[in-house]
Amino acid sequence: MKMTFLRSISAIAFSALISTPALAAPDLANGKTIDQQKCYACHAKKTGFGNGDMIYTRSDSKVKSLADLKKMVGLCNTELRLDLFPEDEADVTAFLNKQFYKFKP
Q1: What are the φ/ψ torsions at residue 23 (nearest 5 degrees)?
Q2: 53: Cβ–Cβ under 8 A, 6 or more apart, which residues?
Q3: Which interval of the chain is the signal sequence (predicted)?
Q4: What is the residue-wise DSSP string for the chain?
Q5: Closest CA to 56 of 71, 64, 33
Q6: Which positions ≥6 away from 92 have C-beta within 8 Å?
Q7: Which of 12, 16, 21, 93 is deepest in the core (most CB within 10 A)?
Q8: Which pTM was predicted?
Q9: In whole angstroms, what is the distance from residue 69 CA to residue 94 CA?
Q10: How far apart are the first and last CA of the chain?
């Protein structure tokens, strides 16, 4: 009886592992495309200098960690109704981190 129970638990755990999709690595190219299409122009207006990248490199940045960056991307998506999927947010975050912030995961 005990072995049957353990086998059942093992079978359930195994099926859960194979049926759960693995987290995909962020798509940096997609993140860059989204940044260029949906973020750059707004950021260029905000800086007043026509350069959307300046917002990422300014000395008074509100983004001090990878967690802050994730929150800011999510906030922009929600507040500006950018209609990004969670995967897109992850791609943008990964691209911005690699390109500008260089936070450790």
Answers
A1: -70, 125
A2: 40, 43, 100
A3: 1-24
A4: -HHHHHHHHHHHHHHHHHHSPPPPPP-HHHHHHHIIIIIHHHHHHHHSSS-TTHHHH-TT-S--SHHHHHHHHHHHHHHTT----HHHHHHHHHHHIIIII----
A5: 64
A6: 31, 34, 35, 39, 73, 84
A7: 93
A8: 0.77
A9: 9
A10: 45
Residue for token pair 């059942």: 8
Q: Which two tokens stand for residue 33?
A: 């495309």
Amino acid identity for residue 102 in this structure: K
Does residue 105 contact residue 66 with C-beta atoms inside 8 Å? yes
Mean pLDDT over residues 36-47, rounded? 93
Cα–Cα distance measured from residue 21 to residue 87, given in angstroms and rounded to the nearest whole number:
13
> How crowded is residue 22: how many other Cβ atoms within 10 Å of its Cβ?
6
Give residue-wise pLDDT tens across range 57-100: 889 999 999 999 999 999 999 999 999 999 999 999 999 999 99
For tokens 């922009």, the residue is: 76
Place of tokens 């109704």: 81
Amino acid at 16: A
